[in-house]
Structure formats: structure tokens, C-alpha cells
Amino acid sequence: MRLLLGCKDSNCVKELVCNVGANTAVKGSDTDIYLGSSQLVGGSQNAIDRWVRVIDDDSKFVFARSNGTLQLCERKAVVNLESVEEDASKVPLFKWEVIMDFNESLFDQSVLDSLMAASNRRTKMPDAFVTLCWLKKGVLLAATKSGLVHIISVSSKNKITKTCTHKVKAPLEFVQLYDNTTLKDKYVFATGGEENLVKLFDLDKTYQKLNQIWEAKNVKNDRLDMKVPIWPMQLRFLDPEPVSSAENEGELNFQFAVVTRWSHLGIYQTRHGRKPLRYIDLFPGREPLTSLEFVGETTANKNLKSSNIKEFSFVTTDTKHGVWKFNAAGTLLGKYGKSDIVGAPTFISICHDEGYLLQGGLDRYVRVFDVQSLRTLAKVYTPSKVNLIELLDNKPVQTAEPVVDKQKTKQKRKRVIEETEEDVDKLWDTLESKAKKIKE
Q1: Does pLDDT of 91 surpass 80?
Q2: InterPro entries from the xrefs (predicted)?
């Protein structure tokens, strides 16, 4: 398989080639692994936050960097590369070329600074990209933590331009685009963040009008009559609830699941009010959750192709070293990696066609799990903190077999046999001499 890695600390991308079963933590099992050199290296504090493949052209990617800029890059094959060892000659290699830099910053740090001044936070909240996804071919939606929603045009002539920008309430942890069904004359997406309840917006097909169409309501106070903290971290849509009568067809009909920073799973149906149908504590210790990935058939934006809110499973991560699998009732189904993961997971993604769960984090390992069995399929050490992983292809790697010198092998075996016979003779001589001394 071939994986593209985004490296947070070295501000670059790397290409990893390996087979199922590769494990650099076990001596002798890393013969079929190739980790490419750093490419598209940015300056200080210029890591790649998000990326997307260009529609109908898998060789091109749009990269969103942590300084607020965009890059359009192309991946090209390299036929001859002198730095590659002979035993990796059968592994096709690639290099990256920058086609265009969009250097206008899409961030607004002043919005987050004003929020910081009114809060009790002790650390700075830097602006960052929270979403980069396609609205349609040639049109990107890029959203930032500061509440800016940009519409970006990527032309067939490899030119990037900003069409317009909308502002929503900040800070944001996610902007999730709805693509379960085709909506007439509009796009719908959800937003949310710290002390920022989930909201639904519709954007017309001209990209000029943005309207809020729904807002969630917080659950009732806890048993101590304290407000339950609001901090949705990730949201995924499900298919709409089936409607039985024609009278209800015009109602707002969206279903989605949310995980929060306070270890809650919330399941919502907009037809049944603003509060969640279920709000479940996943962990008694309130471990902060950071991600949500559905297990099953999903859309291009990882929304679940099912309308059953009672029967689904999902994978989530915490800020320690846990990658967990739950069902819709909040029952723990298992933990990926068990105690093998020793750093906070910063990225997970499920490749449903292959049945893989890709995981990377602060312990600098890239892991590939089987989604259903939770078994580790590959584990490769990289010298970088991985924050993005993309499966480029799932073809097995053909590595060159080592040349075996039969004559040397035969001589070595003969020498080992001779040495073994000599050792046995010496041992018997020693035992016989000791036996004689005892008799005397």
C-alpha cells in the first residue's frame, strides 16, 4: 500500500510504501518498507492543516497550510532516483511540484484574540483550517477556526481565486458539509465549537447568501443544577429520517451525531426539536474526545449512508492515547492498538472499501488497523508527528528478493555442524575428568 503523510513538526509531506504485516518495531519485518524524503517543506509554523484531492485528477492536491495560504500541487512519477537503494528499485517513487501558490491569508486572528480577552484561557488560540472540502467540481469550501467560510474557485487552468467569504460565530471546531442527498438550489453545512452550539446553515448555489436555518439547544442542567458545558468537537450526518406523509415533506429533516470535548455522544433529529434525542456519557472520567468516524458505507464527506440512528458504530479518539470503537447506544466495542499507542492520536480516517483504519499521532508511528476486527495490519515508525494520512493505493509492494549465495550458505552450515561436534566432545571430556576426581 502507498500512503501520503502530512508531518506537523517538519512542515512537509512524505510518502510511505509498505505491505500488510510491516512492523518497524519488530526486527527483520521492515524489509518491505520505504519512507520517502521530505517534500513541499514549508517555513517555520507552516505545516499542512488540511488537503483534498482534485476531482477527476488524483495526481493533484490542494493543500491548506497553517499560515492561512493554499497550494495547488501535482504528484509526478520519478523513473530514476540515485538515492534509492538497489533493493527498492521495484518500488515506484514520486515527487511533488507546486503548480500555484495562493498567498492571500484566509485567517483572521483578531477574532480569536478578542474571544481570548473575554475568557479564562491561559494559552493562545491560533487560527487554523477546520475544513477543506469540495462543494462541486472546481469549487472549494474552506473554513477557519475564526468563523470565516471561504468559497474558493480552482479552475481547469490551475488557477486559485477567492470567490467570496461569509462569517459565522466563532470559534469553530468543524464545518461539516451535508451530502447525503442532493438539495435543490442550496448547500447545507453544520458548525460548532467551544461554547458554540451546533448550527445549520444553507448556502445558495450562487454562494452569495448564507442563512442560519437551525440551532441546537443545550441539554438540561446536571444533578447539581450546573450547566452542562458546550463544546462539540466533530459532527457527521446520517440520511434523513423517512417521512410517511406528504404533509411533513417540507419540514427541516436532518439527522446527525456529535461527539463533545466533555466525552458526550449526542444524537439529533431536527424534526423532533432542538435538543438531542440521546445525550450519552461515553466515559465516566470525561476524557476529551476529538474526532468521529462512522463505520460503514459513507459519502464523500464521511456522512453515513443510513437513516437508522439506533444501529450504527463509530470510532473516536481522546487526547491521551485512546482510539475507541462504540455503537449508537454508547457501548464500548473495543480499543484499537490497546496499550501499543503511547502518544495522543492526532488523525484517524476509515477507508471503507479496503476496511482500513488509518491512525497517526504524537508517538510518530503510522498504524493501519482492520476496522472490524481491530487487528493491527501495519505499524511503521516515522521521524515526524503525523497529522494527516491519505491512502493513495492499496497495491502490494514488490520488493527485490535478496540474492542467496548457495556455496557460502553450505560452508556456513558445515562450519556450524563441526563447531557443534567439537563442543560436545569438550563437554564429555570435562564431565569425565570431574567424575575421575570425585572417585579419587
Answers
A1: no
A2: WD40/YVTN_repeat-like_dom_sf, WD40_repeat_dom_sf, WDR74/Nsa1
| CA atoms in the 13 A half-sphere facing the CB of 353 | 6
Distance from C-alpha of 397 to C-alpha of 87, rounded to nearest angstrom: 12
Measured at the CA of 66, the angle between CA 75 and CA 168, to 5 degrees, comes to 115
Round to whole Å and give the CA distance between 199 and 180.
18
What number of other Cβ atoms are within 10 A of residue 262's Cβ?
A: 18
Q: pLDDT tens digits, residue range 138-162?
A: 999 999 999 999 999 999 889 999 9
Residue-by-residue DSSP string for 305-331: S---SSS-EEEEEBSSS-EEEEETT--
Q: Could you tell me which residues come within 8 angstroms of residue 338 by beta carbon, excluding any fewer than 6 positions away?
A: none
pLDDT above 80: residue 435: no
Q: Are 132 and 189 in contact (CB under 8 A)?
A: no
- This prediction has a pTM of 0.85
d(CA 337, CA 332): 15
DSSP, res 400: P
Burial of 138 (0-12, 13-18, 19+ CB in 10 A): middle
What is the number of other CB atoms lying within 10 angstroms of the CB of residue 73?
Answer: 21
Cα gap 390→379, rounded to integer Å: 15
Q: Measured in Å, how far apart are the chain's first and last C-alpha atoms? A: 72
Nearest to 321 by CA among 306, 295, 342: 342
pLDDT at 386: 94
Q: Which three cell numbers stand for residue 379?
A: 505499524
Residue 231 C-alpha cell reads as 463544546
pLDDT of 103 above 70: yes
Over the stretch 312-323, which tens digit does the pLDDT of each residue have? 999 999 999 999
Average pLDDT, the chain: 88
Q: What's the CA gap between 99 and 103, in Å, rounded? A: 13
Confidence of residue 10 (pLDDT cuts 50, 70, 90): confident
What does the block give as the cell for 259? 461527539
* Rounded-to-integer distance, Cα 324 and Cα 338, Å: 9
Give the strand pairing for 365-370 and 386-393: unpaired
Cis peptide before 242 (omega within 30 of 0): no
Query: What digits encode the pLDDT tens for the residues 44-58?
Result: 678 999 999 999 898
Domains and CATH numbers, the chain: 2-437 (2.130.10.10)
